[in-house]
């Protein structure tokens, strides 16, 4: 009974997009640390709620649109999604105009990602070769640009390097997902593993990992344990990439691989606490 309850709770946590939302908040925390920004809790709540609700809309929009009756678990997810949307709208109007404009632009992009358009009635999510770049750009903007813009901090050159690094990290995680989903993805999606194969995709990820590592030293803040933290993060990425295959279960990516941003922020938090002591 306890084991079934625990599994059900983990499944709900993943399916409700709470985990991916927590990962987004963790990346905002990484941005705050590097850019030396004070924590803006309104922004953290917004990022969590907006990420959670947008992912749920992406996943369940079509199903909810075509069905009337839902399971209790989905009903609860719908309720939290609505609450998240309301909270997101509320906090949106508390931000400065630069932050609002940025959010608005990426909200439009997210809408195109979900809602079908054109004669083919495809959304950006289902258009070959586009998905990974749209998601990576959105994550980079939301978790990096928003904290800086809302703090009215100047967009210095290091932000460009940080944006590219954040884009690379998101791209890596998506590619790991695509390797796992190779057996179930529609061939028309033309994901990178479908086009160049699993081994070549993994080799590409390893190259991206090198770029991720190097770019970290072009950021504004350098700290004593930076290399150690970076090595732990990239070792985790390499391990998840190396063992990724289409036979892995959903927890491999949806829980563990997607938790890499949480690992990154946790390691930074530990070093910060150790510095205070």
Automatic annotation (TrEMBL):
The keyword Transport does not apply. Keywords: Membrane, Transmembrane, Transmembrane helix. The chain crosses the membrane at residues 12-35, 41-61, 73-93, 99-118, 130-149, 155-180, 201-218, 224-244, 251-273. This is Prenyltransferase.
């Amino acid at each position: 009974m306890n084991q079934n309850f625990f599994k059900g709770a983990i499944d709900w946590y993943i399916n409700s997009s709470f985990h991916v939302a927590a990962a987004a908040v963790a990346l905002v925390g990484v941005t705050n640390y590097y850019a030396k920004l004070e924590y803006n809790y309104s922004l953290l709540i917004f990022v969590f709620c907006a990420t959670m609700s947008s992912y749920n809309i992406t996943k369940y929009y079509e199903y909810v649109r075509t069905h009337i009756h839902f399971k209790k678990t989905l009903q609860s997810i719908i309720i939290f999604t609505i609450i998240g949307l309301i909270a997101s709208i509320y906090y949106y109007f508390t931000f400065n105009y630069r932050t609002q404009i940025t959010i608005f632009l990426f909200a439009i992009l997210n809408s195109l990602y979900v809602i079908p358009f054109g004669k083919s009635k495809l959304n950006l999510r289902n258009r070959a070769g586009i998905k990974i770049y749209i998601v990576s750009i959105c994550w980079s903007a939301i978790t990096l640009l928003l904290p800086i813009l809302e703090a009215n901090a100047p967009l210095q050159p290091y932000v460009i390097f940080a944006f590219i690094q954040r884009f690379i990290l998101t791209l890596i995680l998506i590619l790991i997902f695509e390797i796992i989903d190779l057996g179930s993805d529609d061939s028309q999606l033309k994901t990178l593993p479908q086009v160049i194969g699993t081994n070549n995709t993994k080799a590409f990820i390893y190259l991206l990992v090198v770029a991720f590592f190097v770019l970290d030293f072009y950021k504004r803040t350098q700290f004593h344990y930076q290399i150690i933290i970076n090595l732990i993060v990239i070792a985790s990425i390499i391990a998840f990439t190396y063992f990724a295959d289409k036979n892995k279960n959903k927890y491999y990516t949806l829980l563990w691989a997607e938790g890499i941003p949480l690992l990154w922020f946790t390691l930074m938090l530990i070093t910060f606490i150790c510095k205070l002591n």
